[in-house]
Amino acid sequence: MMSKHSRIEYEDAFVKISGLIGGEDYVKVARALLNNENATDEEIASATGLKINIVRKALYDLFGRSLITGVRVRDLKKGWFVYRWKAQRDQTDSFIETQKKKALIRLKEKLVYENSHDFYHCGSLTCPKRTFEESMEIFFRCPNCGRILGQIDNSEIKKAIEWKIKEIMEEMENAKKG
Fold this sequence. Notes:
Elements: H1 13-22, H2 24-35, H3 41-48, H4 52-64, E1 68-74, E2 81-87, H5 92-115, E3 119-121, E4 130-131, H6 132-137, E5 150-152, H7 155-177
Helix pairs in contact: 1-2, 2-3, 3-4, 5-7
């Protein structure tokens, strides 16, 4: 069931999101869906050269995220039911918006955490930073390397988090206007 329009090769938002979710296999499935509307999993497997189980995993994942729809129809030749899959490109923007909201929540929680704790570190790149409470419990000595823990300045981390929060909020505002 190849559609009559030209083949989609460019990276639209649906293809990009699919790639972010599942990598190159998902990109192949997404392109196949855009080039062959209402395709079955077997048609997509044939078009992409991917194994059927990989195609089905990608389809079910994209379906679970409401980025594609599946309609169950009877295959007249074989007599059993198959799903015909279709990209829901109109859902791409709402998916992006939801991901941005989730990222904002995580960043705001991280900023609260960074603002409400004093942190200590031994200076070794392989050792984790610790809160004041954790540091007290281990008598300000790193259990990994044995060095003394010193207080660290997390103002740069806080600035970076604040900048990212501002950037995402501006993107969301501009998306509402556009």
